[in-house]
Design brief:
Layout lengths: L10 H8 L2 H4 L12 H9 L6 E4 H10 L3 E7 L5 E6 L14 E4 L7 H10 L9 E4 L5 H8 L5 E5 H8 L5 E3 L11 E6 H5 L1 H23 L1 H11 L7 H15 L13 H13 L9 H5 L2 H10 L4 H10 L3
Parallel strand pairs: 4-5, 4-6
Antiparallel strand pairs: 1-8, 2-8, 3-6, 3-7
Helix pairs in contact: 1-9, 1-10, 7-11, 9-10, 9-14, 9-15
Length: 322
């Protein structure tokens, strides 16, 4: 289950589907699209799904409710949510939002924990000192809300923002640097799922196919974008936008590195994530970052899904014909 519709952001996934990597792993996946990370983690905790993707902050919030939450892989392994103001705005920091309105995509969206953390760091309370107003994802409605002053700033993902920048709009990023280490969207599951050998094997295969899609993308970015545009043509009606969006995704996600598990987050990274969310009041701080993101069940899975035939994937990429 994905927290938002497939598109350029999910390039490794779409490439893996196109190249048959999931099929090669013996998988016949049903990939559903949800309305936000909160819904994904709710379904996971309820036992309705075994694996999904969720914003990292939302996953940590869920882990405080259910200590069984496990996070084996993140894409990208750095914060993807940002708070921006129109270029030239008198709002130069989050603290300047006092008494103003901050636009968000939706209540319960992946950016909400990041917003709460940023506000708390500035000594502000959501919907007390700063009004949070859902204005939807990047599109005419949210852009108009920024331009006409309905909202003073907008919290969204870097991918959504590319929709605006591709058409020449300029923004100032006021996201606190302390939040940079928080991972982006992450593959989430539970300890109970990983204790089931059959289900664990499915998780390893999903992550391995995803990793192969990332390796393909790194080997031939042009081919990867072509694959995505054929799979989701509505994302590529404006190729200037598509290229900018694709380049931003690759910049945040980083290159595939064969000497380390793709999407793995360090123990220090998870500890910092928990600390930031605790100090901002988003969570109480009872989450065990080791059990959640770097325990033996996680590292064992990472080692297995990293075992790919890299030369074969690179050959697929180089031989791709549009």
């Amino acid at each position: 289950m994905l927290p938002f519709p497939r598109g350029i952001f999910w390039t490794p996934l779409i490439v893996a589907e196109d190249q048959g990597y999931f099929t090669d792993e013996g998988l016949d996946l049903t990939i559903e699209e949800a309305d936000g990370s909160g819904f994904v983690t709710q379904q996971l905790i309820a036992g309705n799904i075994d694996f999904g993707f969720s914003g990292a902050a939302s996953a940590v919030v869920a882990a405080e409710t259910d200590p069984g939450i496990r996070i084996p892989m993140c894409y990208p392994a750095s914060n993807i949510f940002i708070i921006v103001t129109p270029e030239g705005s008198d709002v130069a920091s989050v603290a300047d939002l006092r008494g103003k309105t901050l636009g968000i995509t939706e209540a319960g969206g992946g950016e909400e924990p990041i917003v709460n953390a940023a506000l708390a760091e500035a000594g502000l309370q959501p919907n007390a000192d700063v009004t949070l107003l859902p204005i939807g994802g990047a599109g005419p409605q949210s852009l108009t809300a920024l331009q006409d002053g309905t909202v003073a700033a907008y919290a969204t993902s870097f991918a959504d923002l590319a929709t605006f920048t591709a058409s020449g709009n300029k923004f100032t990023d006021i996201t606190p640097e302390s939040l940079d280490v928080i991972p982006g969207d992450c593959m989430v599951t539970t300890g109970a799922v990983l204790e089931d050998p059959a289900k664990r094997e499915v998780g390893v295969k999903i992550a391995r196919a995803y990793t192969m899609g990332a390796a393909f993308t790194d080997a031939n970015p042009e081919a990867a974008l072509d694959i995505v545009c054929k799979a989701v043509p509505e994302e590529c009606t404006d190729m200037n936008y598509a290229q900018i969006y694709f380049d931003e995704v690759r910049r945040y996600a980083g290159s595939y590195q064969p000497d380390s598990p793709y999407g793995a987050v360090s123990a220090e990274g998870w500890q910092t994530t928990v600390d930031v969310l605790r100090d901002s009041g988003v969570i109480e701080g009872t989450v065990d970052p080791v059990a959640m993101g770097t325990g033996d069940d996680i590292t064992g899975m990472q080692q297995e899904y990293s075992e790919i035939d890299l030369p074969a994937v690179q050959e697929d990429a180089q031989q791709y014909a549009p």
